[in-house]
Amino acid sequence: MAPLARPPSSAPLLALLLVVAGCGRCGFQPEPGVKVVVPSMPTTLDWSYSDPINWANYPVMLATQRGLTTLAPDHSVRPGLASSWERSVNDSGQEVYTFLLREDVRWSDGTTPLTAQDFVMGWHRALQGRERGEMADLAGAEEVLALQERRAPAEQLQAALARTGVEAMDAHTLRVTLSRPRGYFLSRLANVYIFFPVPSAVLAGRGEEGIRDYFDRPRDGHPLALGPYRVEAWDRAGERVRLVHNPHSAFPPPLGPGEEIVPVLTLLKSEVGPALYERERVDFVFVDSALALQGKPPADLQREPLLSTYFLAFNTERAPLDRPEVRRAISQAIDREALMKGLLPRTRPGNELLPPELPGAATPEEAARLPDFAPERAREVLAGGPGLERPLRLVYRAGDSFVPETAIAERLVAQLSRVGIQVTLDARSDYSAEVARRTPAGPRAYDLYLRRLGADYAHPNTFFTLFERNGLHQTGWETQRGGEPMARFESLLDQADAEADIARARELYAQAQALLLDEMAVIAPLYHPDRYFRVRSFLHGVDVDPFNFLSLRDLRRAGPPTEAR
């Protein structure tokens, strides 16, 4: 097996330090408060209109806003902006939620109350935004989406919006109607920020351009916030966002003895974040290099287990991987423990799609029945199989990340060679385009690819949507056996998503997972990734959540305020 990398020379580090020392206009001017290095700046602060590259927006959105629900440490749903709710199913089979809003919640101006109309306006805007498909479960959403597709007149669109399933019954009662029961809905409300409310009393009467300007040009205490912070400034050129404490928030961080609120917080992007941290110019930085995690870890290194799965995917349309028994045997040829050994400070190898920490995940007994390391059985199936005489091409992302992709790919080559499978590696900077590329004959060009899948919310549904007919799995498995397995898979998911009985829903998701991983062996899960970061010891509550987003909701500090740095 080829070495993972050469030991780094001192020249790159020296260059980084020289850049840091001479940085005058890159966001590190002396100023008070805590500084956090983030991988990317927001693309918008307009959480209703949003953006397809929404992951970059989450740190700010989660620090400044709140949803109807929130999640407990065990990922169970708890009240958020709603103090309680009732669920029912109407005569049409639609699921109806009636949310009672907290009456003590004020926006960050201290005077504007949260009302049900804030959700109505926000969700209507989300239905017209860049991620409007995320609202498809709402009753009436299908009509609104269709009208926008054919560019219907504005009055028709507004009339359709008024018929959608989000209604203000009174100032503090919100009724939400879904087109059909969806067990994941309450979990999505906690995390997916397009479901957050907007300050409708402030936005009333503004045109769409004026509303977008309101959100994306922070000034004079606006845009208003509900969380413990609000945005004071967004410096696009300097790539930083300044957040200040919101004293009117109904969700203050829990202060312990000797702790105090952090009044000013700056999020900034930098290519030299680790060097800035070493020079004590910033207080938090992600460790996004698997190579940097090897060796003795620093004392301030922290780890967050993600609700995430890294897997090997098969091109099911191309021989020899068009046969489930071949795909299953390859999965059985992988020793997941050995694959991950020594690559990171800690690893969670696994053969299941759903992480064990996820509510509704498979039981240990069910996971044991999924394909796992069984080399003798793999050799028996693969011996002399037609099509296996040619090397298989494994595509993965080029570049370093917190997932040790190159090392995993190289170890897969070695492990599969022991059962007679030859693999060539192809690290791609155009990874997504290459995985989707088709040959002149029709099937996609790759044989195998590596990918990480992360949860958007704490529910099994979020892991399965990628592999549905319209999901971006790029495996071609919808064509297998005339589409019957895919139809059965989607039927299981539809039943599970609509099932009110948690135990029954979990059983249906387990069946869907077995169909995907065992019967059809579309992918081979390898491990559940973790995210590592470094943070100053005086900071408490700054974290990475299980969805891989920076979490600042409980941020506080011990000791006197930081000096300007």
TrEMBL record:
- The residues forming a coiled coil are 486-515
Where would you say this protein principally sits, based on its record? other
Q: Which GO terms describe its molecular function?
A: peptide transmembrane transporter activity
Compartmental location: Cell envelope
Q: Which residues form the Solute-binding protein family domain?
A: 77-468
Q: Which domain of life is it from?
A: Bacteria
Task: Spell out the CDD domains in the cross-references.
Answer: PBP2_OppA (cd08504)
Name the UniProt key words of this record, in alphabetical order.
Coiled coil, Signal, Transport
> Quick check: keyword Signal in the entry?
yes
Task: Spell out the InterPro entries in the cross-references.
Answer: Peptide/Ni-bd (IPR030678), SBP_5 (IPR039424), SBP_5_dom (IPR000914)
Task: Identify the GO cellular component terms for this protein.
Answer: ATP-binding cassette (ABC) transporter complex; outer membrane-bounded periplasmic space
Tell me, what is an example of a GO biological process annotation in this record? peptide transport
Keyword Manganese included in the entry's annotation: no
Family statement: Belongs to the bacterial solute-binding protein 5 family.
According to UniProt, the name of this protein is: Peptide ABC transporter substrate-binding protein
Native species of this protein? Cystobacter fuscus
